[in-house]
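Now for one specimen:
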Amino acid sequence: MTRSKKLSDLFAGIDHRRIGSDEIITSIECDSRQVGPGCLFACVVGTFQDGHIYAEQAVRAGAAALLVERELPLSIPQIIVEDTRTVLASCAARFYDYPAKQMRLVGVTGTNGKTTTTYMLKSVAEQAGFKVGLIGTITNLIGDKVLPAAHTTPDAAELHRLLRRMVDEGVGLCVMEVSSHSLDQKRVYGIEYDVAVFTNLTQDHLDYHKSFENYFNAKRILFKQTKQAILNCDDAYYAQLVEGLDCDKLTFGVRENADIYAKNIDITPAGVAFDIYLPVDGGKESRHIKLNISGLFSVFNAMGTAGAALALGFTPDQIAAGLQKVTSVSGRLEKIPVPNREYSVLLDYAHTPDALENVLKTVRGFTENRLIVLFGCGGDRDRAKRPIMGEVTGRFADFCIITSDNPRSEAPMDIMSSIEEGVSRSGCEYIMIESRYEAIKKALEMGAPGDVIVLAGKGHETYQEINGVKNHFDEKEIVAEIAAQLPDEH
């Protein structure tokens, strides 16, 4: 269906100044490479680039009008506003006829656990008969239909376009990861969520936010845009987060003073079993849950999911059925087959100190022999966490292989040297291998019966970004390829 609106209708009630004619708009973009005839191109001022410099390119591609913060010397209708980010979010919502208001919407934020929580909630809702949309780090989904995901949270124009498509295809509930970047950059400005979940807060993205306070404040924005908050009250930042929040709240944690809590937790290599206690009709109901994902952090993700599900009106039985249906989430403590080997290989996206510690603590608990950990850190990102992650790994691992992750524009050995500072402090034995392929090969070659090898950092990613180029790099394929070449064990 072709969608169109006049500029005057699109910006009615929004503070702006228009130069030029009242054009008909048939699409909205903030990426000049996606512009075509009839498009409103929004010149967004970003962290590294100013979208105004792409305005001429957009005009050549057929843009009908520009959304700008300053008048440009181009003969094309221009809408001049104070902040293109907030206005883009508002006019995109209007252009697509406010799809966020036409279904239930859940936002999940926090440093770790966002992806798993959204997949768990999708499973619960589907068990209850809903068609569910999902927006997140790994991919975007409409039911079982897979759509590519470039960012954890899309830009405002793409987000409302995606939400519109979900509504048109019969989605009744959308669960989405909401990153700190998207909140700071106003990609979800103006959206009211039915439920928002806070998983936890630990160090990450300080390259962008500059301070932990800024990072925290960005996360907090989501809870000013929701009707009901589901909050991890065991997290160190809970008290600070909840201060002044006037929405309804449900808390979760392992302590009984939480609204939702877990007891009798039994963690095994295959998963985790526990009793979950849920507030129902002024009392408490419990259900025994067997999750197919291991780790205490999985219990917390399940409790956050249960809180969101209760807020949406799902029953304890529907919650239990949905949680137990989740088998695994790509790149989250995912077991990779290594035929004819008596050791295990696990793939995990852990790329923050806290996530890495949680994963390694879990794996350490069921490792019979050595725990071998291979990891690196991303380039052009938070440098301060590199030695911290090195020290965390050294505390839990028997052997560490420091390698490259997504070095981006940085020299891999410079990143690895920062990690080495932390590993060497821990006293753990380690080697450094710049090529991630060769590092994986080394790990598999040295694996012995009872060992567990953890490949950390990349998880679901199928590329390695080097000097601005994304090269195909799928660790599942690589493990299979190397494992097939290994000599038979005797």
In short: The chain has three domains: 5-95, 99-325, 334-485.
